[in-house]
């Protein structure tokens, strides 16, 4: 062992004396350069061989692209093979053409703008369009099978009346705690609390106040619609189903709901509807008398004062004097009416008509026949019956009354001489029988609870 250590030490001393003290570092550096050079040469050699192999595989396995005459013939065949689309949806040209335009705009705005960056093949767009058209056709067929009259006359009116009643019931509670927090937030919270109290098991606060829950609800709704309208093959295709669901939910339904919920859009739509209708003097006076907004009344008063100042500055003679005097008198009356209304609102003398009717109890007696022939009285009577839980009885009364009047008219027609009296008699009695059975099943059968 000592001899080995001795020879080793002697070798180290001779190495240092011969090559110097930095020979160890040079040796390590030379070894690293050798290893790195070998690795670089191997990498370069492999890259060169890989490129040669890929070029050889490309030329040997991939087909050559069509050039010249074959390419031109292929393009001509593609142009001649135009795609024909059946544009019939509901069977009515008046409805089909606008629907086709909406469908074309939807494809343009939500699909074509990104699809054409991927491919020029029209087959995918054709399949999407055909799927949507099949869904619209199925929707039109199912819509024709629905009896819309009970829905629009009963369920829709009942839902709107319930919503209005909940809102009216939430307003007094908000007025009591107006100073505690923001009025709008308090009104929303109170509205849904009243909704839970009235409808027990139904509350739509999350859908109406949370954007995430609203989008989830619309996705579920579109999922159900696609299940009902799409063929089984298209519905079980997850990519197609999710694709159409997102377009319907976030591209069509959600913007539509946001647009109809925008007060500015509603105001603009109302202005557009009444643009061609001139507001008469009586309607303008009624608006001023019923307005409870001090800012609006002050704006009308200032506008009337400005117009008065302009009319008084005119220097006219003859018949124009009488016209201007009449205009000045009318504006003075409007100004006086606005000032009186503002004074009553600021002094707190204005009485809420709803609270007045509640506090003073039985003010007068109105016969039921008079209530049924007046639209205003009938609306308030429906609100009252809904508060007491007897709205279904009122609907039953109105339905039976309508059936009675219709039956009397039909029977009077049958009493008049007709050429084909027997056949018409049987048809009329059959229709009356069907209507009577419908009233019975809707209000008096064992399945219905009033």
Automatic annotation (TrEMBL):
Every PXA domain range: 92-278
Transmembrane feature ranges: 12-45
Keyword Transmembrane helix applies: yes
Gene Ontology terms, MF aspect: phosphatidylinositol binding
Keywords recorded for this protein, A-Z: Coiled coil, Membrane, Transmembrane, Transmembrane helix
Limits of the RGS domain: 367-445
One GO term describing the cellular component: early endosome
UniProt-listed SMART domains: PXA
Gene3D superfamilies tied to this protein: Regulator of G-protein Signalling 4, domain 2
Keyword Transmembrane helix belongs to the record: yes
Coiled-coil residue spans: 287-314
Protein name according to UniProt: Sorting nexin 13
